[in-house]
Amino acid sequence: MMHENEIGVTVVDCAVNLHKALGPGLLESVYEPLLANQLERAGLSVQRQVAVPIQFDGMSFDEGFRADLIVNQLVIIELKSVEKVHPVHKKQLLTYLKLTGLKLGFLLNFGDELMKNGITRIINGNL
After folding, report:
1. 10 in the Ramachandran plot: left (φ > 0), alpha (ψ -120 to 50) or beta?
2. Residue 62: predicted pLDDT
3. Fewer Cβ close by (within 10 Å): the C or N end of the chain?
4. What is the spatial distance between Cα 122 and Cα 103, in angstroms, rounded to a whole number?
5. Contact, 34 vs 22, CB < 8 A?
């Protein structure tokens, strides 16, 4: 079983390669299935558009939160294709991490000219 950090290396490599091939600025809906496919071809398990419920006090609430990708049931990937990442985008990913109990997430902004500038790694707790 791969550790979160090992999965993260593959995620970053696949995102950079996809960005190089397609360039920046396409819709998120273009990058999502292609990135999922690249990750699966790299040997990882990928779930797309995973519902993230709110659980509190023995109750569950479905508020329509959906994680773009969950890799090997350990790492959440949130995709964007925007001119600039804003704090709300990071809060969105942190919310998903906290609600799922997962430790590692990546905010990947395919709108950046260089993919390396569009990668934000977010940790929930200790990794």
Report:
1. alpha
2. 84
3. N
4. 8
5. yes
Q: Is 73 left (phi over 0), alpha (psi -120 to 50) or beta?
A: left
What CATH number is associated with residue 115?
3.40.1350
Place of tokens 């998120």: 28
* Residue 127 pLDDT: 66
Number of domains in the chain: 1
* Structural domain of 103: 4-123
Q: Annotate 22-60 with DSSP letters as a single string.
A: H-S---HHHHHHHHHHHHHHTT--EEEEEE--EEETTEE
Residue type, 66: R
The amino acid occupying position 38 is Q
Give me the mean pLDDT over the 56-81 stretch. Answer: 93
Residue 104 scores a pLDDT above 70: yes
